[in-house]
Design a protein that fits this description.
heterotrimer; A mainly alpha (about 220); B alpha+beta (about 260); C alpha/beta (about 650); A: about 220 residues; mainly alpha; 10 helices; C: about 650 residues; alpha/beta; Flavocytochrome C3, Chain A, domain 1; Methane Monooxygenase Hydroxylase, Chain G, domain 1; 5-stranded parallel beta sheet; globular
């Protein structure tokens, strides 16, 4: 099995499975966030549920592992791919007709990751992490009104803009990542490719517009 | 033909990669060619340059070429950032000079890949592709003793898809175009052709496993689904073949 | 005469091959391991033979000049491969395929060989299907056929317009399998420079590594030459740039007879020459003649206006067009055999009716077919070809007629071989286009693939054992023997000589000059005068070449100029041999047309009483004329007739 994991196709399979898992997570996350557009109580209640539900508690480390695997394999693949080109590289950059995001998945991934750190620091560290610390009997400052935290942060235009940039980098990453995951898993053919591309584009727009709605809402309302 | 009368010869600047042999360090040299007919092919333009170089007692530029009709897969060249140049569905020998503008500068580079070391100038060693085929790109039948050709009906759709994949000419443009120097399109074309046909199904599992592991061993990169291979393939082979190979590979390994 | 024994088995024609196989000597498996075979060339014949030898258990070394065995020029064949399967129930049979091939070859091929070819044609299809060659199929899942020139049945199997490619890749895959097994050792970018004889038998070859320039020695118990044809003697041909007749010439100089060198085929549907810089000619599939109509203007002034670009072909009214094939051959029309169509085009162009700037082209017009069947149907049938034509010429054949002109395509002549495909040198075999055996004076479409694979898969693996069974006591040869030293030295000397001339003209200059003489005087229409002149001119070019050729670069490096020089040196001798053979053959047959010998209507006129033989040329030294030997052709099963495609 170790041999299998190191084969080029298996590495891509791992990238696509972890990626698909993260895409499912994005949907759940978006669902929770959007409640903030409706009412403070509802949002706080959802946050509380997220902090205390057993399944979610189990899934958080799995999610973290999902990120870790996705990032680790991205690093490995990118390094190997760089090496495969050989020492002498082309003098003229490739002019093939391909989508920009497909060529820049690693860069987009790094951008997404950078903002992710900021995001964890801004919210997760002050919300779910505190509950978990409390559960583990450590010093914690449970946050009983995450809604206000969100509202205050996005009231600051700098953060809103930063988040919007992040979300749109994620959009690029997803437009390629969605169908690409199916392709790497072998779940694609000439008929399904256009369908998957449409589905991926729809998915990326839903995610990006949905997530963008929140900073915009708090910035203006 | 009426336009032919008015067609003017092209004057071009060529930046060509020159490298004495596999061990030496190469560099770009600049050459000027004058009055190139827009109707001649890219390789014929290089022929004319070479004839001039020979006249001056200089060494001509080495490049691979053979059939000059787009089927043998021998010609290569990375021209202005694209394998086989700026047109689709063709090889370099089918690229015509009418696709270039008078006064243009053309950069000509060899295929770049760790698995394709440069032999001289623009000539690279593509035996890595042969080695992958040797690992299983065949049906294990000996000469003679085969059943009648019509003993085994094959769904037309499958036969056609197999033919689409079998059209690969093994030129390596997919590797050259891929930012990861990946040979997935090449390998998947052969895997697909034989996986689609009942004759090839018998040893499909061993085939895909062996061919993929050979491909990895030879230092080709991984696929990141950029589709540059598909965009540059002179035979327009589709990435659905890569998906099929992935599927074949996972199913084969799951059963191990 | 004594030396030529075709070794045709006795008995009725249909039983000869079975009889041969039943009585030939075989080599047992333990002994096969001790025997080495060299195969030169990786096309259909070479790859198929090497793979089959490897499967049998022999040790095989195979050589090609390209970077991979898959590049061999068999790959470029478009149309298809014939077989007498009779899947269409249209009355085909082995005998009919045999008969059509003999007739198509204008009664200049050996009956027994051709019958065997027709016989094994069916096995070839089965073999290729089993290898996974994706032949075209119909909706029931069974193999599809198409018809081809010179036959009244549909017997051609095809894989789109890439049949040669698919068959070659099939043979290449079988070869790859043997390479993996270790039964075959592959040497790519390695060119055969010399045949090594020990006690009169072929025992090895000297090669030059194209990358390093190293001259190397290889020994074996038998050598198979499968190096293709020599169309590139003409400089411009549909052959690949690397295709050359040098290896065959090198064997000829070691004593192998050259059979029928004057028989070369000219293909009528190629894209015309467009400039001095042109390096090769591109073939457009013959299938285009199924729907295209060939014409030139009736009036000379129209032709001149078209050449000057003052008129467009679409502006010529119907009544001013001369559909000369339909006019001359009402029964077959545009579908007459290749040689007939080619000569008719030349006749019109020589008379001043040719089009294109050069005056060396005729129209192939699809306007009628598009009107009759619709653009969609034509696109479905010929879309790829039309696209290819447009890419090359920048003309859209849906709107303006294509222009075509004949070009050198295939050489029927080659090393003389007997029924076992053995040349006059014991242990040296020739297969595929490199031998002379099956096509007579003209090859039918879709027969070259058939012959290459028949020789490689189904003939040589049997016949070579008949020879090797006598060699089982012979231990492997050391490459340190004096014979190898001598051969190596002669190669080195030849290379040194070429490198040291340092003359004024490039190799291409000489090859082009030779090509022009060949095309003008030893081409589609030959006369005693033109051939006599050609011989003198070729000799002069050859002399000039050895004094004035310029080969740049070093001998011990990747040096394409040196490669070309070495090949051109051989072509300069082969060209003369072709002219000599054509001069000798005072008749017209198939691809060989002597203007002195034609019917009042301009058809080829054979002289069966005097020329029903294979001309076999024996090399007698650089400064001597070659000696002619004749192998008489005896037709026991076939009634000889004048070819007639009018009725």
């Amino acid at each position: 099995m170790s041999c299998f994991c190191l084969s080029s196709l298996a590495k891509k399979l791992i990238m696509s499975i972890s990626g698909a898992f993260l895409m499912v997570f994005l949907v759940v996350h978006l669902g929770a966030n959007l409640t903030a557009l409706f009412s403070q109580e509802l949002y706080n209640e959802v946050c509380h549920f997220m902090d205390t539900n057993l399944l979610i508690r189990v899934m958080v480390p799995v999610l973290a592992a999902g990120f870790a695997v996705h990032i680790a394999f991205a690093l490995l693949l990118t390094f190997q791919n760089f090496m495969a080109r050989g020492e002498q590289r082309y003098a003229v950059a490739g002019k093939s007709d391909v989508s920009w995001s497909s060529r820049n998945m690693f860069v987009l991934g790094v951008i997404v990751l950078g903002f992710l750190a900021l995001h964890l620091f801004h919210f997760w560290a002050k919300m779910q992490l505190q509950t978990f610390l409390g559960l583990m009997g450590m010093d914690a400052v449970p946050n009983h009104d995450p809604y206000t935290l969100v509202r205050e942060l996005f009231g600051n235009p700098v953060y809103s803009v930063v988040y919007l940039i992040w979300i749109w980098a994620l959009w690029f990453h997803l437009t390629h990542g969605f169908w690409s995951a199916f392709q790497s898993m072998g779940l694609n053919n000439a008929n399904w490719l256009p369908r998957l591309k449409v589905a991926g584009t729809v998915y990326a727009w839903v995610i990006a517009l949905g997530f963008s709605a929140i900073p915009i809402y708090f910035l203006f309302f | 033909m009426i336009q032919n009368m008015e067609k003017k010869g092209l004057n071009l600047t060529l930046k060509i990669w020159r490298q004495e042999n596999a061990r030496s360090k190469g560099s770009f040299e600049t050459y000027q060619v004058q009055d190139i007919s827009p109707d001649c092919s890219f390789l014929e333009m290089l022929d004319q340059l070479n004839e001039k170089l020979v006249d001056k007692f200089e060494k001509p530029v080495c490049f691979d070429h053979d059939c000059r009709e787009g089927i043998c897969g021998m010609c290569s060249l990375y021209i202005n950032g694209r394998p086989h140049g700026n047109d689709s569905g063709i090889t370099t020998c089918q690229l015509h000079m009418r696709h270039f503008k008078d006064g243009e500068t053309i950069w000509i580079e060899p295929w770049r890949s760790r698995a394709f070391p440069v032999i001289k100038d623009l000539v690279v060693d593509r035996t890595a592709l042969d080695k992958i085929i040797q690992e299983g790109g065949y049906v294990s039948v000996n000469t003679g003793g085969t059943p009648d050709g019509n003993a085994l009906p094959i769904r037309k759709e499958n036969a056609d898809l197999a033919m689409d994949a079998a059209a690969c000419i093994g030129c390596g443009a997919c590797v050259a175009a891929c930012k990861n120097a990946s040979a997935m399109l090449f390998v998947s074309a052969k895997v697909s052709q034989l996986a689609l046909l009942p004759q090839g199904r018998v040893e499909a599992r061993e085939r895909v496993t062996r061919m993929v592991s050979k491909m990895d061993e030879l230092g080709f990169g991984n696929c990141t689904n950029t589709r540059a291979c598909e965009a540059e393939c002179p035979k327009e082979i589709k990435i659905s073949n890569i998906a099929r190979m992935n599927r074949e590979f996972f199913v084969a390994r799951l059963q191990d | 005469m004594v030396k030529l024994d075709a070794k045709i088995p006795a008995g009725p024609l249909a039983d000869k091959w079975a009889q041969y196989k039943a009585t030939q000597k075989l080599v047992n498996p333990a002994n096969k391991r001790k025997l080495d075979i060299i195969v030169v060339g990786t096309g259909l014949a070479g790859a198929a033979a090497a793979a089959s030898f490897g499967e049998l258990g022999f040790n095989v070394k195979i050589f090609c000049i390209q970077d991979s065995p898959r590049r061999a020029h068999s790959i470029a064949a478009q149309g298809g491969i014939n077989a007498a399967k009779n899947y269409q129930n249209d009355g085909d049979s082995v005998y009919r395929l045999f008969y059509d091939t003999i007739k198509g070859g204008d009664y200049r091929a050996r009956e027994a060989n051709v019958y065997r070819l027709a016989e094994v044609s069916n096995n070839i299809i089965d073999q290729c299907v089993a290898q996974g060659v994706p032949f075209a199929r119909d909706y029931g899942g069974l193999l599809d056929n198409r018809s081809f020139g010179g036959a009244q049945v549909s017997r051609t199997f095809y894989a789109r317009g890439q049949t040669g490619q698919q068959l070659l890749l099939g043979a290449y895959s079988a070869l790859s399998r043997q390479i993996r097994k270790g039964a075959v050792k592959m040497f790519n970018r390695e060119e055969m420079m010399e045949l090594v004889l020990i006690d009169g038998k072929a025992r090895g070859i000297i090669t030059r590594n194209i990358v390093t320039g190293a001259v190397q020695r290889h020994s074996a118990h038998a050598v198979v030459l499968a190096t293709g044809g020599y169309g590139n003697v003409f400089f411009l041909s549909t052959n690949a740039m690397g295709s050359n007749g040098a290896a065959a010439m090198r064997c000829y100089k070691k004593g192998a007879f050259f059979g029928n060198p004057c028989y070369v085929q000219i293909h009528p549907t190629c894209i015309p020459v467009h400039g001095d810089y042109q390096s090769k000619l591109t073939l457009m599939s013959e299938s285009l003649r199924n729907d295209g109509r060939i014409w030139v203007p009736k009036k000379l002034e129209d032709a001149e206006a078209l050449r000057a670009g003052k008129l467009k072909p679409t502006q010529i009214p119907e009544e001013d067009r001369d559909y000369y094939l339909e006019r001359r051959y009402p029964a077959f029309g545009n579908l007459v055999p290749r040689d007939v169509a080619s000569r008719a085009a030349k006749e019109r162009c020589d008379a001043g009716f040719g089009v294109n700037e050069t005056g060396l082209a005729v129209y192939l017009d699809f306007a009628d077919a598009i009107r009759r069947l619709g653009k969609d149907v034509i696109e479905a049938r010929y879309g790829n070809l039309f696209q290819m034509y447009e890419k090359i010429t920048d003309d859209n054949p849906y709107e303006t007629p294509m222009m075509i002109y004949p070009a050198i395509h295939y050489s029927m002549g080659g090393l003389w071989v007997d029924y076992e495909l053995q040349t006059t040198i014991p242990g040296l075999y020739a297969a595929g286009e490199a031998n002379f055996s099956d096509h007579g004076a003209n090859r039918l479409g879709a027969s070259a693939l058939m012959q290459g694979l028949a020789d490689g898969y189904f003939v040589l693996p049997y016949t070579i054992q008949n020879y090797l069974s006598h060699e089982i006591q012979v231990p492997r040869f050391s490459t340190e023997l004096k014979e190898f030293d001598d051969a190596c030295k002669s190669v080195q000397e030849r290379i040194n000589k070429l490198m040291s001339i340092g003359g004024r003209c490039s190799v291409d200059h000489f090859q082009r000059q030779l090509g022009k003489v060949m095309w003008d005087k030893v081409g589609m229409a030959r006369t005693k005068e033109s051939l006599t002149e050609a011989i003198a001119e070729i000799q002069a070019i050859r002399e000039e070449f050895w004094q004035n050729v310029r080969v740049t670069g070093e001998r011990d490096e990747f040096n394409p100029e040196l490669e070309k020089a070495l090949r051109t040196a051989e072509h300069l001798e082969l060209g003369e041999l072709m002219a000599r053979d054509a001069l000798l053959r005072e008749e017209s047959c198939g691809g060989h047309f002597r203007e002195e010998f034609q019917t009042p209507e301009g058809e080829a006129l054979r002289q069966d009483a005097d020329f029903m033989f294979v001309s076999c040329w024996e090399y007698r030294g650089a400064d001597q004329e070659p000696e002619l030997h004749k192998e008489p052709l005896n037709y026991e099963s076939i009634k000889i007739a004048q070819r007639n495609y009018k009725e």
